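Record 1 of the preview.
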Amino acid sequence: MLASEPTKNSKSDFLPVISVVIAGILLSVFVVFAVRGYYHNLGRQQFQRNASYYATNFKNSVERHVTSLAAIHAFVSASHDVTRWEFSAFAHQILPQNSGFKAVIWLPQTVQSARKGFEARMQNDGL
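->
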């Protein structure tokens, strides 16, 4: 064989190159799935943290509102004759702390025979 003669390449000559290409593809696929799993896990953890934060805030807000209503109930129950003005003064201390309340109203229970007098007093107060 002369030095200027081209040599025939056999399949075994390309085996190292093919092996490197296949190994590179497999490694790339592995890295893609590993990174995908890592970021998927990070997203799941962030979702769990956010859900826990919002659930806790919601629960605390509801508990604060229930506690405020219980305080108003205790005030009215402990007093035998709460006037509209007493109720208003007490409720105005509670309402600013509870933005979820639009209003808390004083609505005493009256018997039918006392209704006319009650309505007259309310009209005299400007209602």
